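Re: that chain you flagged

S.,

Sorry for the slow reply, it's been a week of failed gels. I finally had a moment to sit down with the sequence you sent. For the record, here it is as I used it:
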Amino acid sequence: MRIYFCKYVIFLSILLAGCGNSTIDKPRDIAKPKEMAKVAALPKSIKTPIDNLSSKEKELLGKLLFYDPILSGGKDIACSSCHHPATGYAEFLDLSIGSNGKGLGSKRVFRQPNNIPLMKRNSPTILNTAFNGIHGKDDYNPENAPMFWDDRVKSLEKQALEPIKTMEEMRGLHFSKSQILTEVAMRLQSIPEYKNLFADAFGPGTPIDSVQIGKAIAAFERTLVANNSRFDQYMAGDVNAISHSEKEGFELFKSVGCINCHNGPMFSDYKLHVLGVPENNKVPEPDSGFEESFAFRTASLRNLRFTAPYMHNGAFQNLKQVLEFYEDISFGKTRNPSVSKEMFDPFVRELQLSVKDMSLITSFLNTLNDDNFDKEIPERVPSGLPVGGDIQ
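Prediction finished late last night. Pasting the C-alpha cells below so you have them in one place:
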C-alpha cells in the first residue's frame, strides 16, 4: 500500500504548477509550442555571484544563521523551522505556519492565543535552489536567479531576507517591516561569537548588516545540492543507472507534453503560467500571484518525495484530485472564478496523458530523487536559543 501511494504522490508533481499554465512572461521568455524542450543533468559545480564568492567560513556562518531563531521578531522561528532537513528542506503542510508556531512538519501548529495568519503559499524545498533559473548546462546567472512562486525577487541573497521581513513568516507583530532587519543586525552585533564569525567570513571591520546576513545564508543554501540522482548518472553516460521501464517513462514524459514546461536540468522552465488552481479556503482573499495575473512559476520535479501537497497553495493532496482538476480544465471548465478558460495555457490542450502511461512516467520520476544532501544539524547556535526554533 505504501509503495502504491508513493508512486501516485510522485506522479502528482508532473501536473504541478507548470504544465497547464498560461504563459504571461515577457515575449523573450515564451517557449514556442512546437519546439521540443530538452532536459539535462545538473552541473557538478555551483556558480556564485562575483560579490559573494563562497568560503567555508561564510558557509558555516550561514548555516548557523539558518538554524538560529534570533533572526525572527519573536525569537521563536528559524529558516529551518519550515525548511528542515528531516523534511527535505521543505514542509508537509499545504500552507506553512511561521511566527507564533510550534512543532515540525505536519505536526506544526499555532501557539494559543494566536493572531498571526497562515502563510498563503506552500513552502517549496530549497534543495538545488543554487541552480534556479538554469536552462542548459551552466546556463544561469546567480545574480538574477528567480525566487518564490511569483518570481518577486532575484538571487538567493535577496531571497534569504524576505522571510525575515514578512509578518506571517518570521517577523511577527513585534517589529515593523522597516525595523526588523536593523533589529536583527543589532542582536547579532551584541553576541561576541557572531562578531567573530562575521569577521572570519567577511573580514575584520565589516559591518554586520542585512547585506552580509543575506550573503551568508545564501552561501549556505548553495551547499544544499542534490545533483547525483540516477537520472544525472544516466545523462553522464551510465546507461545502466536507470532501468528499461524508466527509460520508457522518460520517452513518454517527453512525448505526452510534460516536458513543455518541466524542462532543463531542474525540470522547470522557470516561467510564470496561469492555470486556475482552486483557491485554498484557508486563505481569506484570492491569491492573484504575479502582478495580479494569477500566474505562478513552474516548480521543479526534482526530489518530488519532499514536495507534497502540490501547487502554489497546496490545494491538491493526492493524484485523484489533480487528475479531476486537469480533466475539468481540458474541457474548458475553471474551478477558480477569477480565472477564465481563455487564460489557460495552450500547453494544457497539448498534454496527452493517459492512465496507461502513469506507471512508466512515475518510474522515470523516481530517477530524479537524490537524498544525498546535507542533513547535519548544528548542536547549538551562538544565540543560545533552541536550534531551529520552537520545533520540539
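What I noticed first: The chain has 13 helices and seven strands.

Talk soon,
D.
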